[in-house]
Amino acid sequence: MGIEFRGVTKKYPDGTVAVDDLNLTIEDGTITVFVGPSGCGKTTSLRMINRMVEPTSGTILLDGADVRDSDAALLRRGIGYVIQHAGLFPHRTVLSNVATVPLLSGWDKRKARERAAELLETVGLPAELGKRYPAQLSGGQQQRVGVARALAADSPVLLMDEPFSAVDPVVREGLQDELLRLQSQLGKTIVFVTHDIDEAVRLGDKVAVLRVGGRLAQYGTPADVLRHPVDDFVAGFVGKDRGYRGLSFLSAGDVLVEDVPTVRVGGAPGESADWRLAVNDEGEPRGWLPPSSTVDGELSESDLVAGGSLYQQGTPIRGALDAALSSPASLGVVVDADGKAIGVVTARQVLDVIENHPQGVTR
Amino acid sequence: MSFLDELGQYLGSANNREQIVDTLAEHCYLALLPLVLGIVLAIAIGWLGRAWPRARGVILVLANLVYTIPSLALFVVIPSLIGTKMLDSINVVVALTLYTAALLVRPVLDALDAVPPAVIASATAMGYRPARRFLTVELPLAVPVLAAGVRVASVSNISLVSVGALIGVGGLGVLFTDGFQREYFSPIVVGIVLTLLLALVVDLLLVLLRRLLTPWDRTPAPVKTEVAA
Ligand SMILES: Nc1ncnc2c1ncn2[C@@H]1O[C@H](COP(=O)(O)OP(=O)(O)OP(=O)(O)O)[C@@H](O)[C@H]1O
Ligand SMILES: [Mg+2]
Questions:
Q1: Which ligand is the nearest neighbour of the Cα of A83?
Q2: pLDDT digit string, tens, across residues B110-131
Q3: If you count DSSP H runs as helices and E runs as strands, how many of each does chain B have, helices first?
Q4: What is the distance between the alpha carbons of residues A62 and A43, in angstroms, rounded to a whole number?
Q5: By alpha-carbon position, which residue is closest to atom 28 of ligand 1?
Q6: Beta bridge partners of A157
Q7: Which residues in B lie closer than 8 A to residue A140 (C-beta atoms)?
Q8: B224 lies in some domain
């Protein structure tokens, strides 16, 4: 279901113009991210889609139909919504929270609860959590419940207002990955609001940068916005390290993965003048054995130098550069999807690929 | 004759015992029915105050005014306002309903204000219509704050019922007027003790009811940190 903003303006009664003549087409089955500084009208824009805020002028079309032609409550039951800080109902168990929309839509209790239990699994929460109250969950778990509750409508459209802003960066990254995984299965039309450009670039198929006063500054693919900011405002907003961020969009398919001598943890390493990669029985990297180190008997993990970050084959090249630069051996460890080490790359090789890329960094 | 002998004699009479049980039952009815009606009325007024913020100031001033009217005056005035007979127990019920509502309007508004806006917004976003949202989301979440006010109102009602004895409808208060007229201590003491006991028991029941209504409010503090979601 596509969404179209046609000349949409919102002026609050106190005179604040929150959104100014917004024209934007959100394509079916994509993630579109509204990003911009605080107060630029992101939440207002989002809430006009499900009529929690009514525009002062202009039209919003959902799948070609003016949203104002639908009953507001019914329209909302058909649109998933994730609110900042999850906004869970504190007085209902996790399961009832997730079952909210099915129950409102008149499903019978048993069916609604079954659906809710299914969704807990979908968002990666153990079934036992269903009996708890929201206050008994961690921040990250609450966000997941918020997402499960929004999915319960099984609507083709999902609106998400800074859903991950209240959790720490590590948890946030996990939730973002999860969202991308879900989206690859569900293919919904997602409108996602954030003020974090990194999150926007990571999640968005398209990014809409808004400036204060509710004006659309730029709308395009993340690579586009990073590489060709239309003006100083967008350039300043995407930041100085946008070149490095742009690496997120360059595939590392051309980087040559080289073999590296390995030793097995628990085996007898012998001696060598080179850095050697220690792997466990499953072939997963455990660390590095420095050149000419002597080990008595079996190699144990305490003999090793901790490794740098790992680069999973097929993911953006930014990770390969990270891996090479953070490795004690200056060799970035490349792993396959199962986490098995398959070789190494050097920073030089990665930079060669970047420099020789026909258009520099693009998607 | 010692006081205990007098008390024994008083309680020994089947007539007296019957009067005690009757007045106690009447006291419960006269205190608790207005409590329930007053809560409902206060919630309705609170809903108005939320829906129509400009009316709030007026509502709170009126509530204060009503609560300052002396109870005896109200008991006497009500029959002429609603056309009931002077000795009708309805008068006491109406008067105490007004007091309860007046006392609870502010706690109701405070309790509704304390419901997190994000929760209300998310209920709206899920597709609740306003009336259902109020009854099934906002009101249950208001219970913890509201409960404190209800306990105060219940004690206030139980003590005010006795004043009704002066117009002939007063539950255990009738024992006081009787005792005074006959210069007889025992009914007064029994009346006081039973009033206190009733207040205690009702308070205890209200505490239990609140616990029953808010199982979610007994949870430990939220987990603040975590390694992974
Ligand atoms: N109900 C309201 N009444 C008056 N002004 C409002 C109202 N809601 C929002 N505004 C104003 O409209 C502008 C846009 O607000 P909005 O909440 O859409 O911004 P936002 O981009 O979501 O900001 P944030 O990142 O801080 O959430 C702000 O200046 C805000 O103060
Ligand atoms: Mg916002």
A1: 2
A2: 999 999 999 999 999 999 999 9
A3: 10, 0
A4: 18
A5: A39
A6: A189
A7: 226, 228-229
A8: no
